[in-house]
From TrEMBL:
GO molecular function, one term: oxidoreductase activity
UniProt name for this protein: DUF2520 domain-containing protein
Keywords recorded for this protein, A-Z: Oxidoreductase
Keyword Flavoprotein carried by entry: no
Lineage of origin: Bacteria, Pseudomonadati, Pseudomonadota, Gammaproteobacteria, Moraxellales
Length: 260
């Protein structure tokens, strides 16, 4: 398949390299920053472009840019008379946000966190698909199954729900890692000591419902420890609020008996 990437960030980089490794032809890489386009294009033997008007015919155009730019990109593609499939890679953007870009449009959303410096095993990345027609979905499905063993056809609302849950589970967790790291640095303690605990926590939920794996003073209703921790955080009121809010959430969840 001949594929062009619109975008040169983390998602575009990983998708371009994964598709290139599968022997797909990466035709062009677009970025408003020509240097970024050149950098990614050089990795996949593609042509770098920094104007959408320079796009050549392709079977698939993957829009991998920030959510706020997707509709604008689609509007700029509209006059180009594109006949290939145009698909965005966003978890929270509606399918119809790009309907003006081509008669054939869809969603090709990889449910994973991406960083350029960290390789990703695409075979384990859930790919969520949506399309303007059964034919578009079929073609995206064929491509997706070459990349991943986990391919799903979900509506915009289902995909948005997954994206919200992903933000809570991933982005919020990483924020907590960051504030824990900052707190320990202030105390002269090595954050690396927490890494086995973090790995064990993540490992448990691979085989058990998260609610059944909850531990700590909040689920035990150990008020003495909760109060002590709050006092220890008096000099960091924002973190103290986070601690109190999450502790209250844990206690409420377990008091409600919501353990399905």
């Amino acid at each position: 398949m001949n594929i062009s990437l619109i975008g040169s960030g983390n998602v575009a980089t990983h998708l371009a390299q994964a598709l290139y490794d599968l022997k797909h032809q990466i035709v062009q890489v677009y970025s408003q920053n020509l240097k970024n386009a050149q950098q990614l294009a050089s990795l996949v033997q593609a042509q770098p472009v920094y104007q959408l008007q320079e796009l050549q015919p392709a079977d698939l155009y993957l829009i991998a840019v920030k959510d706020s730019a997707i509709a604008e990109i689609a509007a700029q593609l509209a006059p180009l008379n594109i006949q290939g499939i145009v698909a965005h890679t966003s978890g929270s953007t509606a399918l119809d946000a790009i309907q003006q870009s081509s008669p054939h449009y869809g969603v090709f959303y990889p449910l994973q966190t991406f960083s350029k410096a960290k390789a990703v095993d695409f075979s384990q990345v859930p790919l969520l698909l949506e399309g303007s027609s059964a034919k578009v979905i079929q073609q995206l499905d064929i491509l997706a199954r070459q990349l991943s063993t986990q391919v799903y056809h979900y509506s915009t609302q289902q995909r948005r729900s997954l994206h919200l849950a992903a933000v809570i589970a991933c982005n919020f967790s990483n924020y907590l890692y960051s504030v824990a790291d900052d707190y320990l640095t202030r105390q002269g303690v090595d954050f690396d000591l927490l890494k086995p605990l973090i790995l064990e926590t993540a490992s448990k939920i691979q085989h058990h419902a998260p609610i059944h794996m909850q531990t700590g003073p909040a689920v035990r209703h150990d008020q003495g420890i909760l109060d002590m921790h709050q006092q220890m955080l008096e000099s960091q009121p924002q973190l103290q609020q986070v601690y109190e809010l999450l502790s209250q959430g844990i206690m409420h969840l377990h008091m409600s008996g919501n353990k399905n």
